[in-house]
Amino acid sequence: MSENTNRRPPAGRGGHGGMVPGEKAKNFKGTMKQLGGYLKKYTVQLAFVLVFAVGSTVFNIIGPKKLGKATTELFSGVMAKLSGTGEINFDKIAQMLIFLICLYALSSVLSYVQGFIITGVAQKLTYNLRKEVSEKIHRMPMNYFDTKTHGETLSIITNDIDTLSTSLNQSASQLITSVVTVVGITVMMFSIDWVMTLITLLILPLSLAIIGGVM
C-alpha cells in the first residue's frame, strides 16, 4: 500500500503542469522559412498592409511641415498688420488647416485599415496553425505524452501560437512604420534646412558616445 502511495505518475500524467517558458527555435532559419510558407497565401493582404502603413506614416510626417507653414502665414499676417502693411490672410490659413485635417484623417484611416488587415491575417494564421497542431496531436503515439508534461504540450498549443500571432500583429506594422518614420523625418529635415540637419546628424553619434561612456 505504501509503495502505491509513494509511486509518482509518469511524466505528463501527473497533474496539470504549469506553462513552460518559451524556448528559442533550434533551427531559426528553417522556422522562418516555414513561417514564410504559411504567409505566402496572404501576399496580397501583406502588400496592402505595407502600402497603407507607408502611406499613413508619410502623411503623419508631412503634417507638421504643413502646420508650420500655417503658423508662419499667421505670424507674417500679424506682423504685417502691426506694421500697417497688410492683413492676416484668414482664407489661406483656413485652407491650410482644412488640408491638414484631411491629411491627418486620411492617415488615421490608412492606419486603421492596415491594422484591420494585419489582424485578420494573424487570426487566420493562428487558426490554421492550431488546426494543424490539433491534427498532429491526435496522430501522436501515446508514448509521446508519457515523455512530455501537460505544460509543454499546452505551451505549444496556446502560448507559442499566441506569441506568434501577437508578434505578427504588432511587430510587423511597427517595423514598417519605424523605418519609414526615420527615413521620412530625415528627408523632411533636409528639405527644411540641410545645414542644421547635417549638424544634428554629426552631433548625434558624439552624444550617444558620451552617454554610453557615462552609463
Describe the structure in your own words.
- The protein is an all-alpha fold.
- It has a domain at 42-180: ABC transporter transmembrane region fold (Up-down Bundle).
- Helices cover 83% and strands 0% of the residues.
- Helix 3 runs parallel beside helix 6.
- It is elongated, with a radius of gyration of 28 Å.
- The chain starts with a helix and ends with a helix.
- Residues 1-22 have low confidence and may be disordered.
Which helices and strands, and how do they pair?
Layout: H1 2-6, H2 28-39, H3 43-83, H4 90-139, H5 142-147, H6 150-192, H7 194-214
Quick structural gist:
The chain has 7 helices and no strands. It has 215 residues and is mainly alpha-helical.
Radius of gyration: 28 Å
Overall strand count: 0
Principal-axes shape call: elongated
* Full CATH superfamily name of one domain: ABC transporter type 1, transmembrane domain
What is the ordering of alpha helices and beta strands?
A: HHHHHHH
Structural class: mainly alpha
Distance between the ends: 64 Å
**Mean pLDDT figure:** 80
Give the C-level CATH assignment of one domain.
Answer: Mainly Alpha
How does CATH name the architecture of one domain? Up-down Bundle
Helix content: over 70%
